[in-house]
């Protein structure tokens, strides 16, 4: 409320916080805004150091006191309370926005709802004031909308400071400690709140020795970070090491069933909440890629997670227990072990055993954040467990923020995947579907449908429907101390779309991209906007075309995962293989002759994936080993598809480069350096040496073209040499 009041007052507007029980209206907090064409575009506090992607700009308008008399208060929210999903782990985050005679009123029961309503109006800009009178109620699909940072306090010898970070160093830590100046974190918090994020884990899931001490010695400093997030409705979580009772507590064991271990964790939790009253809880990567866990003591994941859950439960805390568990020391000769099965094999049998405050956090696919994977069957396999979906905003396997890849479409596809079957999925998108949210309702009518409330449009069997009911959505952040926040300035579109999709998983990802473009480049000429869309609209599909084909995945350089290496993982212990030989390619994951993975899905998906005749083309090689001459649904052979997509992918990147070259000279000055100068931030954030946005994008696009060309030539050459089948169009293959 304080933030909204400050932002509103700065523009001569009104904000009213009313005491509960005054009985005038049904909301506690009211913000009124009226359009004022004379007003300049205001920028709400706190000052940002962002150069672009300043998602939180206010509309061209200013608040007014005119309508203060129509508002009042009474604790109880703004709509029917029994279905307010935003309050499952915090306050009621919903808000109601109404427009009458060109004045806009936002009402909410809690601070957070008002803040989201404020950003809603800011996002709409002048459009908020146009059109007929309306009343809308908005609520998030889930109360848990989270970003995980894989930041280390110290600079790690192999991974650098931010594991899989492509945007510079950490915004939280520098010089081996929590930063003294957290102004960047304050700006980040505002940025995230404007998209709907309400939880952040600040440190890497691989918890090294230095980072483990965030839970003990550093708590007062973690509290400072929490204080920077708090005004924006964001709670802080920590990744913790399962071995902490030994490494930090000096105990001889971390056995979750040992009373001394449980007591150590209870004390640790008590100290954390004493220091940070709204602390969120723990994120745990256990028995995964060398991290310690309960297996060492013959215990299972439920034993481990529940012990931690008991420690945080008195404080209302959550344990996010990651399901990314597999054997990373397997023998490539052993064809019966399938990494894709691992999370399901480990976790599905434990369904029903996890405590109420444990959330099992499941990566979207069964492997590891590839550009294309089937949706993880684990999400549907644990109906008696709270499950969160884990996405990756940081572009580890999708071009490392050197390549322009807008991931909104991928996430939308995942969120709307329906375990009940593809027909159900299609029905959702039909124009006359019941699931289509209505956009407005009669003014003043409380009985009106909860329009624009996405929780009412999610099929219970879709990924979004399942996780919205239980564990929410989590993703690995892509932000760092880079002057553009995300390395590639266009990667901000991913941060934006991710937040918006956590609020409303039914949102159209193309419309979210439009929003981001309009908010980030508000003064851009039509040709600049056109260029942005040329580059970003189908950038996910483009990346897929020039990298690994038909869902087979990996083929990246081991270790850093950038650039092509078709056999890079083929004979390693990591369990990621394509099995290409002279006759064919792909992994047989069928029940009939393969690893049985296809059978982990409910029907009709199990049968659809089981047969190459019904398996979708884009996942064919994930589920089947087929000859190069196998004919896809598209009518092409597998080998010709590989050649065609790789040539086409590079041509598309060439068109991106050309599109940017045409407009880069006409980009408006974004004014960020001036803004930073005004608030004395220019030196601190290095804006003095800034590279202009146009140049930064051009430099990244040049690298994208180089890399895509390398991918094309290596992949095409590899499969030409393996198969001996020439390209039917006779193009150059080496
Ligand atoms: C990937 C990534 C690792 C990360 C891991 C995880 O494997 O390459 O850096 O630690 O995912 O999600 O835990």
From TrEMBL:
It comes from the Bacteria. Residues 136-421 form the Glycosyl hydrolase family 67 catalytic domain. Pfam families: Glyco_hydro_67C, Glyco_hydro_67M. One of its GO terms (molecular function) is xylan alpha-1,2-glucuronosidase activity. InterPro entries: A-glucoronidase_C_sf, GH, Glyco_hydro_67_C, Glyco_hydro_67_cat. Residues 36-94, 422-461 are annotated as: Disordered. GO terms for cellular component: extracellular region. Residues 486-671, 695-731 form the Glycosyl hydrolase family 67 C-terminal domain. Residues 422-437 have a biased composition (Basic and acidic residues). GO terms for biological process: xylan catabolic process. Gene3D superfamilies: Alpha-glucuronidase, C-terminal domain (3.90.1330.10), Glycosidases (3.20.20.80). This is Alpha-glucuronidase.
